Structure formats: C-alpha cells, structure tokens
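User: Sequence in, structure out. Go.
Assistant: Echoing your sequence, followed by the structure tokens.
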Amino acid sequence: MSTFKRRGFFGGALAAFGLGASPAAAQPPAGGGGMGRRSGFLPEYARAQSYKSLKQSSHDTTGGNGDRWPIKPGATQEIFNQQGPGVITHIWFTISATSPTHLKEIVLRGYWDGESKPSVEVPVGDFFGLNLADYVIYESQYLACSPGKSLNCYFAMPYRKSARFTVTNEGQQAVGAFYSNIDFLSVDALPPDTLYFHAQYRQETPTRAVRGPGGGDVLNPDGKENYVYCETRGRGHLMGVTLGWVQNAERWMGEGDDMIFIDDESKPIIIGTGSEDYFLGSWNFGGREGAKAFSHHQYGAHLIQSPERTGGRYCCYRFHGDNPVTFTRYLKHTMEHGHANNRSDMYYSCAYWYQDRPFTDFPALPAVADRLPRVAQV
C-alpha cells in the first residue's frame, strides 16, 4: 500500500480534528474539471499544514548505534512521554528476544492526559493482530507485520494534555533489544468532541459450551453466554477487533454469530450470521482442505493452520472503518463460540475503539502463563 493510501484514515482523522483538509477537499473535482471556485483539485498533502511533525524513539542518545532498549524480566521501559495536545499517528516496533512467546509476555500500556489507569493494555503481539504469539506477515489499513518482524500501527491517537506509553517484560527471560519509533503531531489544540483511543485485551480459555437436554443446542437470543470482546460505558464508536482462535476439538468452530449491544444491556442490536461472515470471509474460509490465509484493508484471516482440526490455529481481524459502530451510553461487543455457544475453544482478542473518557476500568490482565496459546482438555 502506498504511503498516501496508508495514511487515508489519518487524513480523515485530521479533518475530524480540524487539523487538515476535509476528505472532499482531497479529491479532484467531479468529471475531472479544472480550476474552479474551490481548491478541491489539490490533494491534502499539497496544502499547508498547521501541525508540527515529531518523533520519539529508542535512538542512542550518546550518538552511538545502540538504538534500542534492553528490558530485564519484570522491568518496565517508558517508550513515549509527551506533554501538550497532540496526535500519535504511527507506532513501529521490532523486538529481539530469546523467549519464543515474547509477543504474549511483553505488555503495551498507554495513558492519556495524566491518568493513572491505562486506555491501552494489551500484550504487544495481540495489539498488532498476532494473537497467538507467532509473527505473520500481513497488511491491513491500521495494523501490519512486515518481513524482519516489524510491527506497525496507524490508528490515530489524540490527547489533550499528555500521552505516555510503556512496555513491561512480564516474562522470565530478558528482552535483548526493543526498538521503537513513535511518530506524532504537536498541535495548538484539539476540538471539544475529540475522542480517546482505547485497546483492550480479553481471553476465555476455554469458552464454556452450552448444551441443552440430551446434549443438543439451545436457542441464544440474548447472547448472555457469548464471548466478550469489550464492554464499556460512555460515548464513542467501535473500530474493530483482532482474534486468535485455538481449536480444542475437530470440525468447524466458526458458526457463532457476532452480537453487539448498543445503549441497551438487555439485548443485542446488531446480530450477524456467523464468525467467518463477521470477518468477511465465507464457507469456513475454504474448509478443512481448502482454507487459505488472506489479508485486506478492513478484514482478514492472516493465519490459518490445521483448519478444522484439534489444535487448529486462526488469527483474524475485522475493522469498521467504513462505518464505526457508534454508542452514546454503553457498548458490549460479543460473539457466540460455535452455534448457540456450543463449543469450548480458546479465544484471545484485542478490541479497538474511541471514547469520550481518557480511561476505562479494564478487567485484570491474565497472568503470562494463562495467556500462552494452547490446546485445552475439555
């Protein structure tokens, strides 16, 4: 994807923040017209901007080539600290670590406006869509993993007063080198309706299968036993999720419908037709013998291993950039685990959304040993 296409979401975000041209101004006039009364013929990047471009990184402050941070077991490294209003536009990490499960062991936390509680709290792999601790090369509009194990995020992250990010090594082995580049804008002010970025990790290992009399399925109109991606109160909009699945039994596991509760805790307002449909695939992603990994701007299943078999592994993502799911008081994003919650598999996810409050009370992060992907005996 080109740089300008890559930053399309950010360009729209700039317009929303009042910091750049509107999306309409970035498009040529209809019919390919020439000089008109408006300057719509100019793309946004060819117009004067009102922000200051900056970066914080792991560069060697002595001027040497040690542009990295080692992180001992149990240690926390601050990787970003900025005062004043601004917008993080891009995060890039690459990590050298001995532990094969360091993507689950290193936890990324982000704090807005001096809050003591994080708005981002996710194992670093899950944050970048690598929910099963394996590096997988893929590209989406907001997240990507490139050759060389480089991790990229393009979600715009505005803050009014300050921003701070840390990484904590919760593993038992040292991280030899953590490289970081975080690009951001310094601005004079942000509009009153600016929302804060949130990212939350959840897991259920295993999900609890629901069975009726005689072992049959039961109806599930209310979604009470569904897997929960996130639950929050306030005003904002959902941007999407990443999910890692590990199968604990044979056959297809993705018959579960997505169910989103919006401003009403009693019943879901949005109900889909199946897990693979929510991730914008179809027919079991190709089935037991024909499933193939895929990745596109807004959706994908970038990891598929041993499909429809015990121990089968999937990583999927779905973003709602075309139509962020709005809420004014309450949001709970859920999905059935199997048809009517009839399966017990392993779920590891990260949800991404924007909200009017700079923090959310997250559930306690599971211990490292519990976060490691595995097959359970059920």
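User: And one key feature?
Assistant: Residues 1-11, 20-37 have pLDDT under 50 and may be disordered.
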